[in-house]
Structures are given as C-alpha cells and as structure tokens.
Amino acid sequence: MAEIRIRNLQKTFGSTQVLKGVGLDVGDGEFISLVGPSGCGKSTLLRILAGLERQDGGEVHLAGRRMDALPPAARDIAMVFQSYALYPHLSVRENIGVPLAVRRLSRWQRLPVLGRWWPGSRACRAEIDREVQAAAQQLDIAHLLDRKPGQLSGGQRQRTALGRALVRRPAAFLMDEPLSNLDANLRVQMRSEITALHRQLGTTFVYVTHDQTEAMTMSTRVAVMMGGRLLQVGSPSQVYFDPANLQVAEFIGQPR
Ligand code: ADP
Ligand code: MG
C-alpha cells in the first residue's frame, strides 16, 4: 500500500504563511492533481513530501509510515521537476542511472559518481545498464543514451528526467509542472504518455499543474489549492460541475 496521508501541514517563510494546515489523503495508485494559482503553495507542499523542505507543523505518512524525518533518498518516492534538473555533464544513460548508482554506494563514495562514470564491479554496472536501458525503451529514448542533456530537445530532456524517476521504482511519483516548459503539441502528447505510465505502473501520482485541462483529463481526483489551503478535493467532474465555492468556480472556469 502506498497511500499518502497529509495532516495539518504548515509552513511559513519569513512572515508569510505559505501552508495553512493542509490535509489530504491520496489513495494507493491514485492519480491526484494539485491545481491552483501561482504562489498558492503547490511546490512547497510537494517539496515537503519529497523531503526537500521541512514543515513547521503537521505530519506526512507514506504507506502507513511516518516519513517527515526521513532524508529524501530514504523516501520511497521520486520527484520530477519542471526544470528537469539533469546533470549537464553526464550522458542520458548516466543521468538515468544516477539513483541506481547512488543506492549501491556508501555515503563517502557518492560524490565522485556525479563527476565521472560510477565505480563498482562490472556486474553492478551491467545491472544498472540493463535497468537504464529498460526505462529508456519504455520512454522511447533508447537511441539517445549517449547524448548530453544539452543535445536534447525539451521533450527528450523531460523523458530523461522521467527515466531517472522510473528506475527508482518508487511507491509514489511527485511531479511539479513537468510539462509547462514544453510547447502545446508536445504537452498534449506527453500528457497521454504520463497517463499511460500511470496505468501501466499502478503507482500513486501527485501531479502539480496550473493547467486545469491537464488536471481534468489526467486525474482520478483534483485538489484545488488557494492561499495555502485546499478549497476542494473531488473527482474532475465534481470540481468542474459542482465547485465548492466561487473561488474554485472562478479558477476552474477561467480560460487559458
Ligand atoms: P506555487 O508552486 O503554487 O506557485 P510555491 O509553493 O512555489 O507556490 O510558493 C508559495 C509561496 O511561498 C510564494 O509566495 C513563494 O514566494 C514563497 N516561497 C516558496 N519557497 C520559498 C523560499 N524558499 N523562501 C521564501 N519564500 C518562498
Ligand atoms: Mg510551483
């Protein structure tokens, strides 16, 4: 079971309270989209789930296990960013393989991995290579494994970032506006690929977007966030046809 339970999450930056007590249950295998205007706290919530930010109050559980105190690498989740966050000096193969290499190394061995091809036995490298190859095939980038991120299109970079998340076989994926840097056509295509990935893996997805169409078409449920609070959580049609209040109605109804 990989359900996520979020309880009364609070976060303040300086004098701004960004999360004002967010609670949310995400079911095992669910695809939930978190939507809301820019600055409402979506990324902060995701970063707390990923362990990249520490909350001031509240709790986060994954599969029944409290995970607030775990470092990012120990959480059974993978995050995909809008900016891709690839290592520019590593090939696609190495970028995708990094989490697998890191997992096999002790703490003091980890740093050099990012500078050159990972150490370890030939068998270990072959195993990593097999997993990288499988992920790359699934994402249709197997022919690009020797390129550097600088030699890729935006879509190919995003596929590489997805591959790096995929090889971890996480219990949950967190995606922060992964398609917003892509042009409209590619966005539509990647949308259905991510949906297909979700179906195939059956893994829990928390997907942040400011694109209502994306949220409505991809998700089992939609959570609408504004000003650090969740105003409504429901199926796409509930949120669309039966908005909880005027703010939700205005946000969901606004043309893009
Ligand atoms: P969203 O992803 O919904 O656009 P964010 O979670 O990125 O919103 O940001 C919510 C608010 O928190 C914004 O006002 C932003 O400026 C502020 N914020 C986010 N991260 C930091 C930080 N590290 N330091 C100070 N303020 C931050
Ligand atoms: Mg954001």
Automatic annotation (TrEMBL):
Domain ABC transporter span(s) in chain numbering: 4-252
Transport keyword on record: yes
Any one GO molecular-function label of the UniProt entry: ATP binding
UniProt keyword terms in alphabetical order: ATP-binding, Cell membrane, Membrane, Nucleotide-binding, Transport
Keyword Hydrolase: no
Transmembrane spans: none
Protein name according to UniProt: ABC transporter ATP-binding protein
The species this protein was found in: Pseudaquabacterium inlustre
Parent-record interval covered: 1 to 256 of 381
